[in-house]
Design goal:
Number of helices: 1
Helix content: 10-25%
Strand content: 35-45%
Distance between the termini: 64 Å
Largest sheet: 7 strands, mixed, barrel
Shape: globular
Number of strands: 7
Radius of gyration: 15 Å
Strand order of the largest sheet: 1-2-3-7-6-5-4
Length: about 100
Amino acid sequence: MIIVAAAALFIRNKMLCRAVYHGARLEFDGISYTETDYKEIEPYRETWNIVCKTDDGVWTVYEIDKFPGREYVVARTAWEARVLKRESNIKAVSK
């Protein structure tokens, strides 16, 4: 039973998309997120839905309950959490 559970976790981790941290910016699935102050969305509650993990395996990215569209996500390690906000890639058109 333990072997089956370990194999399932290994396969699940391989199937998750991978993110890359560049300083204070996180990128995955062609979307960039920048670190922001958690007070911007306080109080917030993380879900258990894992969005992705970083390439180095240190950070796990989770959805935030109030933002199922992933406008905000939280990157977490065992000892630290960082709230990230999706960057707007759409430039305003001036008239």
